[in-house]
Amino acid sequence: MDRRRISALAHADHPIAAPLSDTSVAHLLDRALRDGAVQDGAERDRDVRILDLGCGEAAWLVRALEGRPGVRAHGVDLDAGTIAGARDEIAARGLGDRVTLHAQDASEFVADEPFDLVLCVGATHAFGGLLPTLEAARRHLAPGGTALIGDAFWEREPDQGTLDAGFAADDYADLGATVDRIVADGWTPVYGHISTTEEWDEYEWSWTGSLSRWSLDHPDDPDSGEALKAAAEHRSGWLHGYRRTLGFVTLVLRRTPDHLR
């Protein structure tokens, strides 16, 4: 079964493809957009431009645009089917004139203008890791702009159960080392959120449950058995492996001026 189809089905009930609640997403966007002066009634001489690298179903962009008429956005994702579905959802919400979606490799995306906010939450694998993701954000960011980056870290040293779930010990660092790498790369965190155990559990139960439900509801589909197996394997890897070991941090970042580094 195609990995991208599995992901699309698994995120049906949790379109934010990261362990973040709706409240946390809203709070992070408020903080990230603060520097863009995106506030009700604020005077601005142009629309604020947002880019989501690895946008998936464009759930972050929908949340960023609703209630903020002075925002325009671009989203990039490799999965053409997901992009097509996202276009339909955005049009149904009446946001189609303010969002442009691109079905292509996010690492190869080139824009005509820079962006005030660049997001990449839960999609750093598209660039080969955290630091290459930061480099991509830097390329697209307007002077004084903000990046919103979310990635995993080790809450504790990964044990054998975590490694058996498909991780390698050097996949991530602990939280302190992760933030230190970001700062050393020339960024200053101005806000951050560490996903709670409750957010993780909601995300994982939604992921495995949505995929399992689809399989049970479509027993005659050729992919049904493989989907149910994938959900069971994922659930086992989480419960017997990386639960309370793998963490997730989402950071609001700005570039550090050279003379302050």
UniProtKB/TrEMBL annotation:
GO molecular function, one term: methyltransferase activity
Keywords, in A-Z order: Methyltransferase, Transferase
Entry keyword annotation includes Methyltransferase: yes
Methyltransferase type domain ranges (all copies): 51-146
GO biological process, one term: methylation
Keyword Transferase included in the entry's annotation: yes
Pfam families: Methyltransf_12 (PF08242)
UniProt-recorded name of the protein: Class I SAM-dependent methyltransferase
Taxonomic placement: Bacteria, Bacillati, Actinomycetota, Actinomycetes, Kitasatosporales
